[in-house]
C-alpha cells in the first residue's frame, strides 16, 4: 500500500513539471499568435465574441465619441499599437473597462460618466492596454490550467497519503490562488498603465484621483453590499484593495513630471451623452450613489441644466420626506440654464401640476411641447390642458 | 409483459417530467386576471404559469421570444416586476402615488433592468382601462444581441393598485403579425 502511495505522489510531481510556462514576453506590435498555440485558441474565441459585440445593441456608435476615445487610446498606446486594439464603447451604467487577448477593449459608459477629465480616461485605457501588451489573459489561462492540475494532483496526493479530509483544503487554496493571480496582474497593469499615460504627457495625479472618487461614491451607496466590497480585504478579493492602489499610484505620481488633464476636450466629448447616461444610472435605483455622482459633477460647475434636472429626477423617484420639494427646486434651477434638456420642462410641469400651480404648469408644458413637437407625452399633456 | 410495463412506466414518467418542465396551457376567449379584470383572447395563446413572485402572467403564440403578452393585476406599493431572489438588490418599484407618466416610466425601467437595450417610450396617451382612466403606451428597444423590439401596452391604477398589460415582439414581422389581436385584447378589458 505504501508503495502505491509513493507511486501516486511521484506521478503527481512528474505531471506538475509538465505545466505550461506562465512567464511570457510582452506582445509585439502588429502580431498575431501562431495557429498551433493555446494563445491562438484564446484569440479565436474572443474573435467570435467580438463578432457578436459588433452586432449588439449596447455598442455606442456615435462617430465623434468613438473618434475621441480612439484618439486618447492612441495617445497612450503609441502609434505602433494604435491599430492593434479596437475600443468599443458599451452602454452600461457601471464603472468598467475590460481587455480581451485579441485586442477587443470595452469601455463602459458608466466609466465615461464618472471620469472627470481626459487624463483619468487615459490612465484607465493605459491600464487595459497593459493587460493586452503583457498578455495577461494568456498568463491567466495557463495559471488556471496549471492550478487546476495542481488541485487534482493535490487531492490525489493527500488521499494517497491517507488524509482524504484535507482534500477540502486543496480546493480552498486553489480558489485563493486563482484570485491572487488577478490581484498581481491588476497591480502590474496599474504600474505599466501609469507609465504609458504619463509618457503621453497626462497629469500623474489623475490615476489615484479616479480611484479616490470611486471609493467616495461607493461609500455613498444605498447598498450595504457595495460598501462592504470597498472595505473587504480578504484573500478572495479579485482586485488589489482599492486604498492600496490609491497609495501606490500616489507614490508613483510623486516621482513623475507634471502633465495635462485636458478636461475641456473631455467635457466637450461626453456632454451630449450626459443626460442619457445619468438616466441609465438612475435605472439602477441606487439613489445614494447616484446623488453623490451628480453632486460631485455640480461642484465642477459645468452642464448645470442637465445636472439640476437629473438631480430633480433622482429626488422625484426616491420619494423620501422633503424629496418632492427638492425635486421641484432642482427643476426650477435647471430651466434657468440653456443646456436643460426639454424633459426638464416636462418634469417641472408635472411637479407644478401636482402642487396645484396650474398656470405655471401650463407654461412649463407649453415650453416642453414647443421644444419637443413630437414629445411622446403630447397626448397626456394635451388631454390635461383641455380639462 | 415486464418489458411492456417498464416501457409504459417510462412513458408516464417522461410525460410527468415534461409537464413539470413546460407547463404551457392553451387559452382562448375570456380570461380573468386575479379577480381584478377580464380580457378576451380572439386567438389561441399558450399560457405560462403565473409567476408567484412578480405576479406576472405571460402568454405567447409563436414562442416567448417572438411574441409575449405579459399582464398583472392589483400590484401594490413597493412591488417590482423583476424576478429576483436577491432581497438586497435595488430595483425599480411601483409607488401607489405615481402619475400616469411615472407608471409608464416604471414599466420602461423594468424592461431595461430585464435586459431590453435602449428601451424608449415612443408614445403615451390617455385610454380607458375598462372603466378606469388608463394610459396607453408604445415602446421600442432591442435585445442585447441587437434584434429590434417593439411593444405596446396599457396600465391603470385602481385604489392605489396597478393593473398592467404589455405586449412585446421583434419589430420585424412578428410585432405586426398579432398587432390587431393585441389591440382587440386591450380594447376588451372589463373590470370585475
UniProtKB/TrEMBL annotation, chain A:
Its cofactor is Zn(2+). CDD domains: M48C_Oma1-like. TPR repeats lie at residues 342-375. Pfam families: Peptidase_M48. GO terms for biological process: proteolysis involved in protein catabolic process. One of its GO terms (cellular component) is membrane. Transmembrane segments: none annotated. SUPFAM superfamilies: TPR-like. Residues 65-252 form the Peptidase M48 domain. Residues 1-20 form the signal peptide. Belongs to the peptidase M48 family. This is M48 family metalloprotease. It comes from Aquisalinus luteolus. The lineage of its organism: Bacteria, Pseudomonadati, Pseudomonadota, Alphaproteobacteria, Parvularculales.
Automatic annotation (TrEMBL), chain B:
It comes from the Bacteria. This is Lipoprotein. It comes from Aquisalinus luteolus.
